[in-house]
Design goal:
The complex is a heterodimer of chains A (about 260) and B (about 350). Chain A is an alpha/beta fold and about 260 residues long. Chain A folds into two domains: about 190 residues, Rossmann fold; about 70 residues, no CATH class. Helices cover about 40% and strands about 25% of the residues of chain A. The longest helix of chain A is centred in the last third of the chain and has 16 residues. Classes of the chains: A alpha/beta (about 260), B mainly alpha (about 350). At the A-B interface, helix 2 and helix 3 of A face helix 7 and helix 8 of B. The complex binds adenosine-5'-triphosphate and magnesium ion.
Chain lengths: ~260, ~350
């Protein structure tokens, strides 16, 4: 189980981005972390995987514990070895290398050849499309295929927890559905999932639990059904409006403001 | 079809220069085939030495984005290690006698000693990386390059004034010996350089397809994404520097031999081999092993052929001018292809 408690992250020693964030990812579950642009979702993920250093960021308060062990400040390679891998925002496949070589990088921490072969077979099973393009240069794959490759690459390490940063970004609805089904599939075979999304509908349709964050902290959490029923979530994240006549608009704007205040206080 | 506009001027110029050169060389080859063959093999030998040095540059640059200006001093240091082991017959920096030198026939003891020298070179690369490069990860690349330039100077002074580089023999078993093929004399050292280059390039080709090599390419392409896969970037840097230092040392050993030098000994000048090879690196493209090979060969060919056939032909070209030929070739090459023949334009890395 991953437990983040009262996490504070600062960039460049002055820019406070996470302000006491707390979330939990119990074993075997899919947990969704939703939030608008700039809320600090990617920063949360960097803190989990030890990549804050690269961005001149640091954890200044709070804790991240993974199966009871504190992991904040550990090296990315140690964190991957301990069973957490991530699919980075924007896919970040190694465009110059082949599909197979990309997958090899994902299995870098696994020394056992048989285990590597087993995860490779599993990835090919999850993504038959990749199998047809093994020796193709990753840069020439379509956006959807690149996202599959990014997930496949992360799965090569046989993670116990898979963290995905906006896997639906820039994909057509059909592909989003396919990615969603694959995440469910991965979860069914025992991998916990922390799903970071702006596409709340997609994330909440498969999550066991959801968090909504704004400006660096959680403003609401609960089961998907509860979150989906909430008026604020409907408006801000699902783009559903209770009424569309212009007369009401100003009133609703006031309400927006009030709700925002309620959330961020 | 190549259009005649401003962008194509260097290319047209190049083609314009190559056609008469080729005709001239064909005439020379027909007139004196033995001399032509001898020149060609010498040129390939020099090209192989440049290519080996260039490959060291490329390995380090590709993994760490650092142009290593200390490559020349590392080359001289590598040759010095050999001299310590085979001429002074003791382990570098100690008074312990080199036990390997008396093993088997002369060439075996010598060969084993060279392997030990290369291990010392690798260690030197590791130490330099650890102390001066690793702490600079994430700092401006220009600063890192300047650090390597400082290292070059420090190492050179250390080599020359503390260790005293003055004419230390490498005692290569075949000396300046060679064989005659079709009337052309070929130094064994030239053959050795060619074989070593083939082995090194084939080795790097397979290395880049191994798990560690793939990790190195991943780090080269996107350091953060590589870290996210659990790849230890520090270790990749260390491997690149160790390999780069070994290639520099190999280049340094050949830099004491024909066709580069006839003396067979390390001199302060040995360190210049890296600057002489720099045009090959830039011409080939800083991040391409294929580029290092072709750049090395092109520059080696240009330098030797110009020295052989053009130097005596006119009074206004002095005897030292073949040394600048590599730079002329490099400038023309860069005008045609600004990133080198095989280099990747920076735009790719958004
Ligand atoms: N390296 C950095 N240095 C300084 N500030 C940063 C850095 N990276 C991110 N930030 C700031 O931190 C805040 C949170 O950024 P983050 O990328 O975590 O948001 P996000 O929720 O992932 O947004 P998005 O949905 O757009 O990806 C933003 O205001 C951003 O400007
Ligand atoms: Mg983000």
């Amino acid at each position: 189980m991953l437990e983040i408690a009262n996490l504070e992250v600062v960039y460049n020693e002055v820019i406070l981005v996470l302000r006491g964030l707390s979330i939990e990812v119990p074993d075997g579950q899919i947990v969704a972390l939703l939030g608008a642009n700039g809320a600090g979702k990617t920063t949360t993920l960097r803190a989990i995987s030890g990549l804050l250093d690269v961005h001149e960021g640091a954890v200044t308060k709070g804790s991240i514990s993974w199966n009871g062990e504190a992991i904040a400040g550990k090296k990315p390679s140690e964190i991957v070895r301990s069973g957490i891998t991530q699919v980075m925002e924007g896919r970040r496949v190694f465009a110059e290398m082949t599909v197979d070589e990309n997958l090899t990088t994902g299995g870098f921490t696994i020394k056992d050849k048989a285990a590597t072969a087993a995860s490779y077979d599993r990835v090919m099973e999850l993504f038959p499309q990749l199998g047809e393009r093994r020796s193709q240069t990753a840069g020439y794959l379509s956006g959807g295929e690149q996202q599959m490759l990014a997930i496949g690459r992360a799965m090569m390490a046989s993670p116990k927890l898979l963290v995905l940063d906006e896997p639906s970004l820039g994909l057509a609805p059909m592909l989003i559905e396919q990615i969603r089904d694959i995440i469910v599939d991965i979860n069914k075979s025992g991998t916990s999932v922390l799903l970071i999304e702006q596409n709340a509908m997609m994330a909440l349709s498969i999550a066991d639990y959801g968090y909504i964050m704004e400006t660096g902290k959680i403003v609401m959490d609960g089961e998907p059904a509860k979150l989906l029923a909430d008026d604020d979530v409907k408006e801000f994240y699902l783009g559903l409006h209770s009424g569309d006549d212009t007369e009401k608009k100003s009133f609703r704007d006031v309400k927006h403001y009030k709700r925002r205040k309620k959330w961020s206080s | 079809m190549i259009r005649l506009d401003r962008d194509n001027v260097p290319l047209l110029f190049l083609i314009g220069a190559l056609i008469p050169t080729t005709i001239f060389l064909v005439i020379q080859a027909v007139n004196d085939p033995a001399l032509f063959l001898e020149t060609l093999i010498k040129a390939l030998g020099l090209g192989a030495v440049y290519a080996l040095i260039a490959l060291g540059f490329v390995l380090i640059f590709k993994a760490t984005q650092t142009v290593n200006f200390a490559q020349g001093a590392l080359a001289a240091a590598g040759a010095l290690f050999v001299s310590f082991l085979v001429a002074d017959e003791h382990i570098p920096f100690t008074t312990v006698p080199n036990p390997l030198i008396n093993i088997g026939p002369e060439w075996l003891g010598w060969g084993l000693s060279v392997l030990v020298a290369l291990i010392f070179a690798a260690l030197l690369g590791l130490i330099i990386e650890r102390i001066t490069i690793r702490p600079m990860v994430g700092e401006p690349l220009f600063s890192v390059a300047v650090i390597t330039l400082g290292l070059e100077i420090v190492l050179r002074v250390f080599n020359n004034d503390t260790v005293k580089t003055e004419f230390r023999a490498l005692e290569i078993p075949w000396g300046n010996g060679g064989t005659t093929v079709g009337g052309a004399f070929i130094n064994y050292s030239v053959i050795a350089a060619l074989i070593t280059a083939v082995v090194a390039f084939v080795g790097v080709f397979f290395f880049y397809r191994s798990k560690t090599g793939i990790a190195m390419r991943a780090v080269a392409f996107d350091q953060e994404a590589a870290m996210a896969q659990g790849i230890n970037v520090g270790r990749v840097f260390a491997i690149a520097w160790a390999a780069g230092a070994v290639l520099a040392a190999i280049g340094g050993i050949f830099a004491t031999q024909p066709p580069v030098k006839q003396t067979g000994a390390v001199e302060p000048e040995t360190a210049n081999i890296a600057f002489r090879a720099l045009p090959a690196v830039i011409l080939g493209g800083l991040d391409s092993a294929t580029g290092a090979l072709l750049g090395g060969l092109i520059v080696g060919l240009a330098e030797i052929f110009a020295g052989q056939y053009a130097a005596g032909e006119s009074d206004w070209l002095g005897a030292g001018y073949p040394v600048i030929v590599p730079y002329i070739v490099m400038i023309i090459g860069l005008l045609v292809r600004p990133y080198g023949l095989f280099g990747t334009p920076e735009i790719r890395r958004v």
